[in-house]
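User: Show me an example of a complex going from sequences to structure tokens.

Assistant: Sure. Here are the input components:
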Amino acid sequence: MIMSEQVKLNRDLAKMLKGGVIMDVTTSEQARIAEDAGACAVMALERIPADIRQAGGVSRMSDPKMIKKIQSAVSIPVMAKCRIGHFVEAQILEAIEIDYIDESEVLSPADDIYHIDKTMFKVPFVCGARNLGEALRRIAEGATMIRTKGEPGTGDVIQAVRHLRAMNAEISRISSMRKDEIFEAAKELQVPHELLLSVHEEGRLPVVNFAAGGVATPADAALMMQLGAEGVFVGSGIFKSGDPKKRASAIVKAVTNYMDPAVLAEVSEDLGEAMVGINENEIAVLMAERGK
Amino acid sequence: MDRNITVGVVAVQGAFEEHCTALDKLGVYVREIRSPSDLLTKINGMVFPGGESTAQGKLLRESGLFDIMLQMIKDGLPVYGTCAGMVLLAKHIENDERKHFAVMDITVKRNAYGRQLGSFMTTGDFGGIGKIPMYFIRAPYISSAGKDVTILSRDENGAITAAREANMLVTSFHPEVTDDLTVHSYFLSMI
């Protein structure tokens, strides 16, 4: 497959984030706590998903001034969210030289049909996906990194698990097909044949895949890693907990040592209150339903 | 190359898998290093991959790997640091108060080409061996080097992007994301 240099550079930046934790932060103090705890990047936003849920109403891109403050506070990559389909918010984020844009279902969608044509941008995009079809459609639109959607702001990992398992199951199914069956499979999944063929050949997504949406504990993070995630986004889980500094650091260590239960036991000790979760059946708005 | 050589690839965070693949293609044994127990049996060389130096430095310290590795480097173990790995090995970091192994006599500037929009690809000469593809991703460069440091490549503005001092090799760019094995072969020749 022919790939532009920019797409390769953007996919490669995601590779540098692998084995790491990307943390939601709302202030420069939080950003520094995240960096000191060993985050490989931060996501700058005005309100974390749990508060977006509670506040209700329309949720938009954060104030660029607030994002710039966070950019100047840390040396690790800074990401920010724009609404699904809101290509002007994306243009603004590119203008302030954000390192990665998250076209995110956590914010209110601006377009219920079209996602952003991410191939028109130089800056990289990460997008959420619940299954292989969504992931490959986003990659076709130019996303250079994927994360499971999970269900943000709930502290409940079940949806992230469901989405990652769904993606893995579909990748295994595609890998085990005959090559001549990929045409039909591409039609069924509504994805470009070329991308599905690369999944068939490589046995993996063509871009880095992180887990997101509901990760609240070191054990949750390690669970996602053992299920095959290449890194983890933690949104509300850290700064909604009793001891953010300690929990942030514990989750970072859990992601590195995800196969070592002794380390996981050690870092899980004495973390204080986890975020108060919302169970799946208590959720009023299913953010994962946004943008298919 | 021979299978009697084992290279440890530091696997606490970052693009370590890509280094493993490149080294595997060159026919040496590769071992991922996550905890001190991974260093109980001998390795002949060690790679510090790209990623975030702040995250890697912290994880290495907390796992107890840091002091063991520092001693191994001082004892002459051949090491290769890419991007963040170069920052970890540098004696001085121009724009960061943090220091890590501080063993190589170079001054490094972190994120020297700016944010992701400043990332770029080019081809350039590596150590007089030939032209190779070079991917710079939020890369650092070497702003000054001590007298015992051999310069292996420079960017078009003259900044140093690859260098060697005794048992230590560093590059600002990422040969592990390309199919070109020149830099990895060079590293293995140091073993």
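The lines above are the inputs; the final block is the predicted structure for all two components together. Chain B has a mean pLDDT of 96.
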